[in-house]
Design a protein that fits this description.
Mean pLDDT: 77
Order of helices and strands: HHHHHHHH
Distance between the termini: 10 Å
Oligomer: single chain
Helix content: over 70%
Number of strands: 0
Radius of gyration: 66 Å
Structural class: mainly alpha
Strand content: under 5%
Largest sheet: none
Shape: flat
């Protein structure tokens, strides 16, 4: 794909530039390494400065090699290498015994133009230019002489500053113009490439479409030739079989007449079904009304039975009250009889003085015995009344249960009558729908009869046309074969462009 190819190209370019920069950095760092060792041996620099420069060079080279061999197309390599070289360059400029050390910035910084990164070049120009400007200020204001020990020469300082500034400006300008020109060229190339690809894709698309259409057309023409041959054969069969259509049409006429008679009979039966359905629907409505009346009467009966149950319950309650009163009277009569007996005993002790009291106590005892006898009769009557009331309550409860069952049966019957009514309504609608369908069938059958007569007339025209179609089919088959040969020639021509198709 174009994106993958472009990415691969960028990766290869980055790898080549990193390799070239590593080689150049190695050469310069080796010169510095051995050069500063030589200066130390000659006594030009101190051991501390020499050791600092050598350690800085070693660390810078180690960082560059580690970054490069870990990933040869690493984007971080350019930043690590230029940062290390900036450190080495700064030490070399400020601690050198040579006035031309500043030119070390020129050979290496040119390499970074190959990265086409204007920001990186701008940072390099600012840092290296700043180091030289600071060095010039350091020589003029602090040292008071050049690094070699010679007196200050304004021409040499001006040359160092001017050459460095001009070089950095040229470096930035060259990078900017180069990047801009490359961007424009790449944009122009990409635009032309896109136009070429669009044109090529359109041509290939047209060729593929022509190829596909030619293939389909050849197939269709081949099939058309086969269909024409088959049609000619079929037309011959139609011409031969069309002579038997008259007998078949006659038989169809007889059968459609029989069908029409059966349809009329079915229509008569549907009329009778419609009448019966209407009568059944009316009977169901009457039955529903009767069931509704029974349900209302059952509700009234249930209310009356509930009143009877209430009255019997009240009667039982009254009988229990009377029984309690009777028990109380029986207890009073027993106490009265005991009091009368005690009074007789006391009157007998009193003698003649208590004789009148004895008569009264005897009368009281007689009344108590009569009261007790009447109370026992009342108790017996109340017991019988209570027994009868209980039996009446049981009977009424059974009547209530029977009434509830009757009510449930009436409700069930009412629901069944409603369901029957719903089914009868559906039956009535279905019968009406059947009646309409039968009328439609009758109309369709009449149309079929008319169509059969029309077919009889058309079949004669078909016989005449079949002969003409047979002759025309033979001529069409011949022309289709010629067209197929032309399409095959065009297809062979289009196949010559297959090698240009991009997978």
């Amino acid at each position: 794909m174009p994106t993958a190819n472009h990415s691969n190209k960028e990766t290869g370019k980055e790898k080549r530039v990193n390799k070239f920069a590593l080689i150049l950095i190695t050469i310069i760092d080796l010169f510095l390494f051995f050069g500063y060792i030589g200066d130390y041996n000659q006594g030009n620099i101190g051991f501390g400065f020499m050791l600092t420069v050598i350690l800085t060079v070693i660390v810078s080279m180690a960082a560059c090699y580690i970054t490069y061999f870990r990933q040869k197309d690493s984007a971080a390599f350019k930043y690590i290498s230029v940062a290390g070289y900036m450190a080495v360059y700064g030490l070399a400029v400020f601690g050198a015994q040579n006035d031309l050390v500043f030119v070390m910035a020129f050979p290496l910084t040119v390499i970074y133009i190959l990265y086409y990164n204007f920001r990186l070049i701008l940072v390099i120009a600012m840092v290296f230019g700043g180091i030289n400007i600071i060095d010039i200020f350091y020589i003029a204001a602090i040292l008071g002489h050049t690094h070699s020990g010679a007196p200050i020469n304004s021409t040499s300082l001006l040359l160092q500053g001017a050459s460095t500034v001009v070089y950095m400006l040229v470096l930035c300008g060259t990078t900017y113009i180069s990047n801009d020109n490359n961007a424009k060229k790449i944009a122009s190339i990409n635009a032309e490439k896109e136009k070429s690809m669009e044109l090529l894709n359109e041509v290939l698309h047209v060729a593929a479409s022509v190829k596909q259409n030619c293939t389909k057309a050849a197939d269709h023409i081949s099939k058309l030739s086969q269909y024409v041959d088959s049609t000619v054969s079929e037309l011959d069969g139609i011409a031969e079989g069309n002579s038997n259509n008259a007998d078949s049409i006659e038989k169809q006429t007889v059968m459609t007449g029989n069908i029409q008679n059966m349809i009329l009979e079915t229509k008569q039966m549907s009329d009778e079904m419609l009448t019966v359905a209407k009568g059944s629907e009316a009977a169901v409505r009457n039955g529903q009304q009767t069931v509704d009346s029974l349900q209302a009467q059952a509700d009234k009966t249930k209310e009356a039975n509930e009143r009877v149950v209430s009255a019997v319950a009240s009667l039982i309650a009254n009988a229990e009250t009377v029984e309690q009163i009777t028990e109380h009277i029986f207890s009073i009569s027993s106490q009265t009889n005991l009091l009368a007996l005690n009074a007789s005993i006391e009157s007998a002790r009193a003698g003649d003085a208590g004789r009148g009291f004895s008569v009264v106590s005897e009368e009281i005892r007689v009344l108590a015995d009569e009261t007790r006898s009447l109370t026992e009769r009342i108790r017996k009557i109340v017991g019988e009344l209570k027994t009868n009331a209980d039996a009446a309550q049981n009977t009424v409860n059974q009547v209530m249960m029977a009434a509830d069952t009757e009510h449930s049966l009436i409700l069930n019957a009412s629901g069944q009558f409603r369901e029957i009514g719903s089914h009868m309504n559906g039956l009535h609608k279905n019968v009406q729908e059947i009646y309409k369908k039968i009328e439609e069938i009758l109309e369709s059958n009449n149309a079929i009869v008319d169509s059969i007569h029309h077919i009889s007339a058309v079949s004669e025209e078909v016989s005449a046309s079949a002969q003409q179609a047979t002759e025309l089919g033979a001529d069409t088959s011949q022309k289709a074969e010629q067209a197929r040969e032309l399409m095959m020639g065009l297809l062979e021509t289009v196949k010559a462009m297959d090698r240009y198709f991009i997978e």
